[in-house]
Amino acid sequence: MKRFFGSVRARATFAATLVVAVALVAAGAAVLLSLRSSLIGQATTQAESEARTVATKLAQGVAYADLDLDDGDDSPVQVLDQRGEMVAAGEDVEAMSATADVRGRPSVSASPATVEDDADDDEAEAEADSALTAGQVADDVSISQGSATVDGETGDYRFAELPLVSKGGVPLTVYAGSPLSVEQDAVSTALTTMLIGFPLLLLTVGGATYVVTGRALRPVEGIRSEMAAITASEDLSRRVPEPDTHDEIARLARTTNETLAVLETSVERQRAFVADASHELRSPIASLRTQLEVGAAHPELLDLEGAVEDTVRLQGLAGDLLLLARLDAGERPPPDARFDLAKVVRDEVASRDGVTLDSVDSVELRGSRNQICRVLGNLLDNARRHARDQVAVTLRITPDRAILQVTDDGSGVPRADRERIFERFVRLDESRARDDGGAGLGLAIARDIATRHGGTLTVDDALGGGALFELRLPR
Q1: Residue 109: CA atoms inside 13 Å, Cβ hemisphere, count?
Q2: Does the N terminus or the C terminus of the chain have fewer Cβ atoms within 10 A?
């Protein structure tokens, strides 16, 4: 059972069937109550009509023997005098007993099984009857429900009680009944039909829901099985099937494929990063090992200065790789860290020759001082590497941004390469020599840091020629 309800299809079927069952029970109860009320109302109307017909004839002076009271069990009638003695009745009527008052004053019993009225009710009835004059019928009819025995068969009836005074001045009371067998048979038939039909309808609803839900979830199973195959094969180039619809499942498939594409790109990028990092590390390590091996065999031939340079370069490359790893892991500056960007710029420019500065006095930002200093250092190193004579730094502010610009008077960056230079291990043709260019990580690191500070880093043409790198950070 637990395994069965572990399926969305099963749960949807159960929920739909339960909702329909509750709705059917509520609707069935409402129909039965409405049917019963309608049929009881019809019986009440019939009993009132028969009682008033007989009472009218008596008030007009028709003799007891001339009354037509032989309607049988369709409408049994009894006429009682003021003492409660029966003076007229249908031929087949053996007993009539009102067991419960429904409307108006209490009805008077006409059989040994009748419930007795209390003294107050008798007095009220007598006063009401005494108010009638000869040949007059009471306006109000009292309705009660009870049983009657007609032609040896006892059944439930709706009774109408109507007082009158005959033309001769005799107070009488007419009791007329209408059988409730029609109401009982109709309600019983409707209930039986519901008890038979409701389970069949619920089975139909459950089966239809199970089939429809299965068809609706079939693409989900296709997505699941394909994802399982992708997981097993580790082939991120595969894609899940996309249904030719515009529903939630189709959007799920498209989103899944987009996620797979991002994962594939990320994995390929990671593989390329590892391969490029290995390639970049291999050269200084090999050079350093060669120098150390030569030094070990021939100390007089050891190039100590070259070994130190290779070590420094290796150390810098390792630092860049570690920083990129932290950035890829989602490292962000502490939310409460603040620093003065203008002071960072002044300090960095002061440590370099041939760099001009045009800056505001102070601008406080939220973020990591060391990382922003790294961005500026990488931009200045890149500008110095490509500049002919001049490197300029400008810092200005807007109401919501701090804008740092680093320009050089070199050859600039071709428009087609302005995004590519921010990729990792990318060096343009003119800077491929490792002695002149770096490993191709500086600009990639700078943009990653800018992005994680909520800013941007772009490149454009400088006014006087050369490249203009612009860093925008939120204030």
Answers
A1: 13
A2: N
| C-beta separation of 400 from 363 below 8 A | no
In a domain, 326, yes or no: no
pLDDT of residue 117: 42
Q: Give which of 110, 103, 104 is closest to 128, Cα–Cα.
A: 104
* Cα–Cα dist 297/300, whole Å: 9
Q: Are residues 228 and 272 in the same domain?
A: no
Question: Tens digits of per-residue pLDDT, 26-70?
Answer: 999 999 999 999 999 999 999 999 999 999 999 998 888 888 876
219 and 279 within one domain? no
Same domain, 262 and 382: no
Q: How many CB atoms lie within 10 A of CB 340?
A: 15
Are the C-beta atoms of 408 and 391 separated by less than 8 Å? yes
Task: Provide the domain limits for residue 271.
Answer: 250-319
Give Cα 164 to chain centroid, integer Å: 69
Question: 0.85 cut: is pTM over it?
Answer: no
287-307 pLDDT per residue, tens: 778 878 888 887 877 777 777
- Determine contact, residues 72/92, Cβ cutoff 8 Å: yes
As a whole number of Å, the end-to-end CA separation of the chain is: 60
pLDDT-derived band at 168, boundaries 50, 70, 90: confident
List the helix and strand counts (H, then E) for the chain: 8, 14
Q: Nearest-CA neighbor of 91 among 109, 68, 114?
A: 68
> Is the pLDDT at 8 greater than 90, yes or no?
no
The amino acid at residue 243 is P
Query: At 447, phi and psi to the nearest 5?
Result: -70, -40
The percentage of the chain sitting over the pLDDT mark of 70, rounded to a whole number, equals 88
Q: Do 161 and 226 sit in the same domain of this protein?
A: yes
φ/ψ of 94, rounded to 5, equals -100, -35
Identify whether 406 is part of a domain. Answer: yes
Query: Do 230 and 260 share a domain, yes or no?
Result: no
CATH of the domain at 301: 1.10.287
Structural domain count, the chain: 3
Backbone angles phi, psi at 467, to 5 degrees: -110, 145
- What band does 165 get if pLDDT is binned at 50, 70 and 90? very high
Residues 124, 207: Cα–Cα separation, whole Å? 64
Same domain flag for 305 and 165: no
> Residue 428 has which token pair?
């343009």
Please check whether residues 226 and 262 belong to one and the same domain. Answer: no
